[in-house]
Amino acid sequence: MNLQFHPVAVLYFSSCAFALVMFYISRHLPDVRGSRIWGIVMLFCAIWSAGEGFQTLVADLDLKLLIVRFSYLGVVGTAVFWSLFIVIYSNNEGLLNNRVKIILSIPPVAAYLSILTLHLHPYFFNSVELVNTNGFFSLSMVYGPVFWAWTVFAYAAIFGSGVLLVQSALRFPHHFHGQIFLLAMAGLMPLISNFLYITGHGFLGPFSPTSPAFVISGLLVGINFRRNRFLDVVPVAHDLVFQHVNTGVMVLDNRGCGGGNEPGSRKNDGPGETGDDRTAGPKDPCQAIRAAGNIF
Description:
The protein is mainly alpha-helical and 296 residues long.
């Protein structure tokens, strides 16, 4: 087995490590809508990145093609579960009945079966060659009709789920908009880098920049974890509660601060309550809640 090294391998394995860290974090999140799916996305990202990294380390054609089969498990899984995560997160999973799920599962399954059997047909890759560029061996591939069919499906799934996210964002409370913006950016960066690569305009030469782009995506999602408490309380919960509850509701976060309006009581002033009474006391609502002690 002939081995080689290129600095781009560091990017791939860094992307893999970061995705595994995100997968580990996801296992310790509350079991809320979408949290487990997000963890699966990160796991497939790690598989994809690891495959790209190992492929740069070998100079044998057959071994490279074996690693391609492993890497495409991550490619297919990432596209499918990312789209599924967005659909669930945006409270649109009602669109996915059993029949729709079966129909939508056909293209990714067919694409991966085509990858596993690529030595038997020219439909995923019309041709694959091992090329030597300044002493470094890489794959040169001519894409076939199955590849392009899978690509159209994957882009449509990711873009379509993004449209659902934007539509849902219009009815989410304002304080969730930053969370949704960063989530949309996280999905957009790998999509753009992959499009540049498959159209021959990649900025890493013969290497796919899509896996390193997930490092940036992971950073954006990490900002959501830190800044917007991503997935601690999803917008879906707020949307469902305040659309169907007509009584006063107080929502507290883990700091003891109020997290939402009270649609059924926003105008219900009690007897004897005046403007002066309502403005008396601590100006900080969190301070008032903590001063009151436990609330049941």
